Amino acid sequence: QVEDTLYPVNDLIVHRGRLLKGSLNKNQAVTALIDAVRRKNIQRHHTATHLVHEALSRVLGQHLRQAGSIVTPTFLRFDFNHFAPLTLDQLREIESIVYEQVLSNLPVNTSVMPIEEAKKTGAKALFDEKYGDEVRVLEIPGYSTELCGGTHVKATGEIGVVKIIREEGIGSGVRRINAITGQNALEAFQRFSYLSGTLMSMLGEDVDSILGRVEDLLDEKKMLERKNRDLQVKAAMSDIEESIKPRASTNGVDLVMEKFENITPDLLRQIGDRIKQKYPVALILLAGIGEENHVSLTSMASEEAVSKGIRANEFLKEIADLIGGKGGGRPNLAQGRAPDAGKLNEAIEKAPEIFARLVSKGRAE
Q1: What's the pLDDT tens digit per position in 90-103?
Q2: Residue 99 phi/psi, 5° resolution?
Q3: Is the pTM of this model over 0.70?
Q4: Residue 234: what are its φ and ψ, rounded to 5°?
Q5: CATH of 37-201, one of 3.40.50.300, 3.40.190.10, 3.30.980.10, 3.20.20.60
Q6: Closest to 97 in 3D by CA, of 152, 139, 57
Q7: At what angle do helices 36-60 and 182-203 cross, to 10 degrees?
């Protein structure tokens, strides 16, 4: 089974593969057969690559140059230089141009000629590619002419539908398009049809209304998430409203610390805002233990506390260091993370001492 072909030197093609059964001797004559289905799929994707290349140039401009490509039996990938992501309208225009050539069933002609003669035809070539004295020219009459030595369909109508499935940036000034053709495109459309049909059935909508319904559901989801966060804050506050008390007080500044399970950094900040209402001159440290025992830290200092020299970022950094984490921020708000909560209780025990030292430092300043 041939798995690859190599060109170690000019005019020498080496087939690399593996023996599935039987035996093979040196200098033995063999008969090579082409996997017709696989070859046909490669031809469709390869010719489609040329159609896409020309369509890109027409839509985006003649500055466009090929920066790489891959042709397989199941998809094509085309890299090109361009300065911005493609819009949905541009992608649709490119597909329309390509599909027009497919419907026209244009002949795909190949010819071998001297490279100077090929240049006179206006055939596109890769600037960094090395060509011999003779080259193979692929022409789709009235559409494009390029130098190419690959396998292609005889007419564009053999390609079938060409569908762009992804467009993305892969580097500075370089974009990439992935597309599918023929049977692969049909299977993709069948999947899309099944998914959209299932969604319409589940939501009781039709093609024209399904998008609006999904947008409404997403808006509703965001609203419910906000309400859920508010309820979590209220629940957390109701649990600690009566029990919350400063762990230490120095120079008129209170130190408030609390630990929570399964709570997000955003919720920690909201809880901190509520605590500041109860203790207007305070330094606050809140720790949330989440999945895999990870720790989120939030430290807040009220305006009055900051005026007395308290710095939430300095306090949080020392706490984070004790539990093997990192953090930073501003004097009034700092956040951090640690990979494990194993040393959190030990750090909380040392926190009053750190707090007292920072207060003394603030008074000295």
Answers
A1: 999 999 999 999 99
A2: -65, -30
A3: no
A4: -60, -40
A5: 3.30.980.10
A6: 57
A7: 70
